[in-house]
Each structure stands twice: as C-alpha cells, then as structure tokens.
Amino acid sequence: MHAHSARALIAAAALTRGTLFGVILTATLAGAAMSGGCVLNYSVEEETRTSNIPHVAASPIVVDTANGAITVTTSADAKDVTIVAKLRAQTKERLAATKVLAERKDDKTLSVYVKWPDDKRLSYEGCAFEIVLPDAAEAKLTSSNGAVTAKGINGPVHAESSNGAITIEHAGGAATAKTSNGAVTINHAAGKVFADSSNGAIKVSLAKDAKGPVKLDTSNGSITLSFGPAFAGVIDADTSNGRVTINGIDAANVKQPKKSEATITLGEGEKSIVDTSNGSITIERRAE
C-alpha cells in the first residue's frame, strides 16, 4: 500500500462501522430513530444521527445533499467534527439502508454525503446536515432543495442551492453564492463576492479591509452592498425597475444619468457589477 493511502486510512473516521472503499475508510453515522410522521398526506420515516469524527486542521470540507438544509459552522470550542444528519425516507427499511458517509480524502478534504439504497433517492426523501468543526480552509456546500449556511470558514466558500436561501458569514476568502429561488446574505466577507439569485434579495457587507470586487445579480429582488474604505475599482449598478441609492460616497465619484443607473469610481481595482431586473439598489461606503 502506498504511503499516502495509508495516511488516508489513518485519518478516516470510523463512527460506527467502517467499509473499505479502495483506500478510503468510509464511516456510517449512527443514531437513534425518531418517531415517523405524516406530512402532506404521505408517510415518512425520520431519524437523527449524530457523531463526532477526528478533525484535521486547515482542511477543506465538502457537503452534498438533496432535499435538505446545510449548516456548517466553525467554533473555537470544538475539538472534533460533529455531524448531525436529519434523514427522511419513505419506509423504515429504506431509512435503515441509507448511509450517511464521511470520507477523508488523500488531500485531507472531508466529504460528507448520503448514499441512498440502490443509489436512488425517492420522492420526499432527503437529509439535512448541521456540522460544527474547529476550522475549515475551504467549504463547498451544495443542496438541491434547502437553505445553505456557512459561518466562520477560514478560506473560500462556495454555497449553492436550487431552492433555498444562502447565508455566508465571516468567509476568509472569496464567497460564492448561487440559488435559483431564495435570498442571499453575505456578511463580513474578506475577499471577492459573487452572488446570484433568480428570485430573491441580495445583501452583502464586506470586511473593512476588503478591496472587492463584487458581482451581484438577481432577477427579482433588491440589492444592498456595504463596504469599507479599502474597496477599490469601478462599480456599475443597474436596475430595470427601481432606484439606485448611494450613501457615503462623494458626488464627484458618481455618475448617475438616471435614477435606475449609476457608475461609481473608487480608484484602481477590478470592476464590480450590481444588477437586478426588479428591485432597488443601495450602495453604501462605510467610514470605518
């Protein structure tokens, strides 16, 4: 066995029982069953599984789920990675056969996902994740239907949902948020910001030392952008149905031929785009 494969085996976590997949030890999370219920005229079995696995400092995390929310938070009080998986399946048999997997890859990335029976998720089935860990060098979080939240990631964050709100707080690198239907909120972003929603408001607040740029786009919703004195570059703001409001910026740096359009020039830097088809735009430069 190669040395890097051996390290992967040692780093992987055996939460309850392990299955060997090539050179990766895959862990199945254990938990206690909750009572089943009837929701919207269909029967669904539910179960919450909670486990702790060893943490690898400054490593990336990837979480992928269908029909469920994702929350990943870093905490100085955490020693290990705590994974709470809230599963829903059509039958008790399918619930028992469903695996929640945590894989530590050779590059130290922790990959968390669900393996459904016969690799097929049925209607109304899904899994929500709540994960707490000491730190993360990067996070990539994807849900096909559910809100996505990332708090305190040390590096870049990529959060995506086909139907759900996205919240990113205190990202240490570039923050990317994409949703087909939901609001996007990004607070205290230290790097570049890219936010896109087909139907929802976008609110972005940059850290005081962040230089940008930002690219913010929604088809239906207002956009609010707030940044500190370090921000630099040209901002093009445009709305098809609404007003562009600018606060804290000298009029000499603003060209606004009409209420729905504005170009703001703040020194040398990458170009930023702020665009909505239906909603107001507010851009504020903080004095801090």
SSE diagram, text form:
Layout: H1 3-11, E1 17-21, E2 24-28, E3 31-33, E4 37-39, E5 42-53, E6 60-65, E7 70-74, E8 81-89, H2 92-97, E9 99-104, E10 110-115, E11 126-133, E12 138-143, E13 148-151, E14 157-161, E15 166-169, E16 175-179, E17 184-189, E18 193-197, E19 202-206, E20 214-218, E21 223-227, E22 233-239, E23 244-247, E24 254-258, E25 261-266, E26 272-276, E27 281-285
Parallel strand pairs: 6-10, 6-12, 7-11, 7-13, 12-14, 13-15, 14-16, 15-17, 16-18, 17-19, 18-20, 19-21, 20-26, 21-27, 22-26, 23-27
Antiparallel strand pairs: 1-2, 2-9, 3-5, 4-5, 5-8, 8-11, 9-10, 22-25, 24-25
The coarse silhouette is elongated
Calculate the mean pLDDT score and round it: 89
Q: So how many helices?
A: 2
The total of beta strands comes to 27
Radius of gyration: 22 Å
Beta strand %: over 45%
Summing up helix and strand content along with how strands pair, one would put the structural category as mainly beta
**Portion of residues in helices?**
under 10%
Terminal Cα span: 56 Å
Write down the secondary-structure element order. Answer: HEEEEEEEEHEEEEEEEEEEEEEEEEEEE
Q: Which spans of ≥5 residues are poorly predicted at pLDDT below 50?
A: 1-40
Instruction: Give the neighbour order of strands across the main sheet.
Output: 1-2-9-10-6-12-14-16-18-20-26-22-25-24
Task: Characterize the main sheet.
Answer: 14 strands, mixed
Features:
13-stranded mixed β-sheet; single chain; 27 strands; 288 residues; 52% strand; 2 helices; 14-stranded mixed β-sheet; mainly beta
Q: Can you give a write-up of this model?
A:
The protein is mainly β. It has a domain at 1-68 and 76-135. It contains two helices and 27 strands. It has helices at residues 3-11, 92-97, and strands at residues 17-21, 24-28, 31-33, 37-39, 42-53, 60-65, 70-74, 81-89, 99-104, 110-115, 126-133, 138-143, 148-151, 157-161, 166-169, 175-179, 184-189, 193-197, 202-206, 214-218, 223-227, 233-239, 244-247, 254-258, 261-266, 272-276, 281-285. The protein has a 14-stranded mixed β-sheet with strand order 1-2-9-10-6-12-14-16-18-20-26-22-25-24. The radius of gyration is 22 Å and the shape is elongated.
